[in-house]
Amino acid sequence: MTPRNFRLASAATALMIFVLAGCSSGGSGSAQISTTELEEPDITIAAVPSADLAGVYIAQDDGFFARAGLHVKIVKISASKAIIADQLAGKVDLCAGAYTPYIAAEAAGKKFAILAEGSIMTPGTRELLIPKGSALTSLSQLAGKTIGMNASNSIGTLLVSAALEEDGVNPSTVHFVTDPKGFPTMAQDLSKNDWDVAFFGEPYATQGEEEYGETALADLDQGAATGMPISGYTVTQSWLAKNPKTAAAFVKAIEAAQLEADTDPDAARAALAKSDALPGLVTDVMAIPTFPTGKVDETRMEREALDMLQFGMLSRKYAAEVDNGALVKSMIPDMPS
User: What is the pTM of this model?
Assistant: First the structure.
């Protein structure tokens, strides 16, 4: 079977599961949901450009959102932390991005709900790159060096800190510098030696390697961080309370898209090539994460919260609710099956 035919078969499989899920949920049995059934069919999703969120682009491009009765506008952002204030103000419905800022916000008293998981890290999907000609050869040399990041106190901070500590470097001895434009411009900035090393997610790690001759100093899918959950789809709890049918429609659509992305990596690559206008030189060889389906996994989310506590991204005053799982549990709603 050719890659194109395989993709079409995978899409058909995902679509069939989506249709069957709609029929078994107690609805009318129609594959197309009427917008009149939803509280708010027009939704805005703020998305961080990365391979981790291929599901949201597939759901848009392959019609899963439309079949769920949703009219979706996707707005690109540099990091999920940047959009939290707009979500709380009701300017953005949903964020497709990292969990870490939402876990921190939840601990501080804000109320968020993770509707669905987006990705789980695999080898090559999160890397530290060095510019062409750099003399650096190991993480042990990074004390006192500058590390370019797409966001502060982010999943990147967590992953880099874990890798440094396992290599005997105290994370407090490096200088994290945030690029406000995020991943899309960071490979070019690193090539100009703006930093000693930089943190990348795919497809931008591959872009740095293929277009700028940058090389990987470390793959961050290692040690205690192996298989770390990276991204998901998050709303405020107040939005969820007002829009339960809309939320359920979104989850069904994204589940179908996640299935397609996970069973057909070429679909994920094509979605990223289109959404971020990247050449095949990059997207054809980029690493692809795992795209989970099903109920949000509490154990995975708890692992992330515990690591945030360990590396100072959560205050120790939240230790009890992190340790007993209450913090994470409060963020996982019971969604219709």
Answer: 0.87
